[in-house]
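Section 5: illustrative case.
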């Protein structure tokens, strides 16, 4: 076989492989938010990947923590017709007096049949698989508004780095179309994955929860060591990033933690120096009801921050030369 023929065969194989990947590989999302103005510059489309290695007690999107699809149930919408019970091929559903529909999640295969027949939309499936091509089609619908506003696409979660290979593929496809790319991450991932994602996006939105390792473990389920180490490496490598801090009363909104956070951030070699303070609210409570899980199961102290705490937090960060504001 001539060299030319061999090169041609290799070329065809590469194209065929990439074509197949684009139509069969899927990313599991639990939400798509359009016209988002809080997830990076301009007006953006934000894609929420499902699955997170953290389990923050205050999480506003607990349906994003599990990396699997999950059935959600809203009792006030349920009329008790039991259609879902009859249609379930796994006998995973029961209609009870005390709780309405109860799902045995060990039996549920997330086939979606009950969702399709529920007349009142009391049942929903959290998690939709998108092929790369389908996801790009969703993103490209927003091109006019992204272009006119200086916006782009933001991958958020959950934790997008859990879907590292899919994220790389999507970021590269967006890059080829000149779409601005941001990734909202906890940085709780091996450095090589962080680095590859950072190389392929234009902005990282990095969540910083608590400087105290013990409290970080208590409230978020994991140590903060890897996160802080990765954050320093991101800064030292010169990748652009903004910091996002959930402001939670009785958890991290005290002077000591905020001063430690501000000192740490001010010590980093960092151009943007932007810190968004995101006040906690208890929207997660309602979502736990839909998941039939318990919000704050160990009753850890936690509350929305007071106005004084918000003002004080802003002053602490700006006092260290950072640009801080409430909201993102
Ligand atoms: S890192 Fe974000 S998505 Fe993950 S559990 Fe915490 S708040 Fe929820
Ligand atoms: S999703 Fe399928 S398996 Fe799960 S409860 Fe509904 S019908 Fe049953
Ligand atoms: S089909 Fe819907 S409305 Fe009827 S019992 Fe099931 S969840 Fe309730």
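Designed sequence:
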């Amino acid at each position: 076989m001539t060299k030319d023929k061999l090169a041609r065969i290799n070329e065809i194989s590469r194209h065929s492989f990439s074509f197949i990947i684009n139509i069969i590989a899927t990313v599991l999302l639990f939400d798509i938010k359009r016209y988002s103005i809080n997830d990076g510059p301009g007006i953006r489309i934000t894609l929420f990947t499902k699955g997170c290695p953290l389990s923050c007690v205050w999480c506003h999107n607990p349906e994003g923590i599990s990396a699997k699809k999950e059935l959600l149930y809203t009792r006030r919408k349920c009329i008790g017709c039991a259609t879902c019970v009859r249609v379930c091929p796994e006998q995973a559903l029961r209609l009870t007096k005390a709780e309405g529909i109860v799902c045995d999640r060990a039996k549920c295969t997330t086939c979606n049949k009950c969702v399709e027949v529920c007349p009142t939309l009391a049942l929903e499936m959290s998690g939709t698989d998108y092929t790369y091509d389908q996801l790009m089609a969703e993103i490209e619908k927003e091109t006019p508004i992204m272009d006119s506003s200086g916006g782009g696409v933001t991958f958020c979660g959950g934790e997008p780095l859990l879907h590292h290979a899919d994220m790389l593929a999507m970021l590269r496809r967006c890059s080829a179309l000149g779409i601005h790319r941001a990734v909202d991450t906890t940085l709780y991932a091996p450095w090589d994955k962080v680095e590859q994602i950072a190389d392929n996006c234009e902005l990282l939105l990095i969540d910083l929860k608590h400087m105290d390792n013990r409290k970080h473990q208590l409230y978020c389920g994991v140590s903060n060591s890897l996160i802080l180490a990765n954050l320093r490496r991101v800064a030292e490598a010169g990748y652009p990033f903004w910091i996002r801090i959930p402001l939670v009363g009785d958890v991290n909104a005290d002077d000591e933690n905020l001063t430690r956070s501000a000192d740490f951030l001010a010590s980093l070699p960092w151009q943007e120096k932007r810190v968004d303070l995101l006040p906690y609210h208890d929207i997660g409570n309602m979502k736990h009801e839909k998941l039939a899980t318990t919000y704050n199961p160990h009753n850890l102290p936690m509350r929305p921050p007071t106005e004084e705490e918000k003002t004080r937090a802003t002053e602490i960060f700006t006092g260290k030369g950072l640009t801080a504001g409430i909201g993102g």
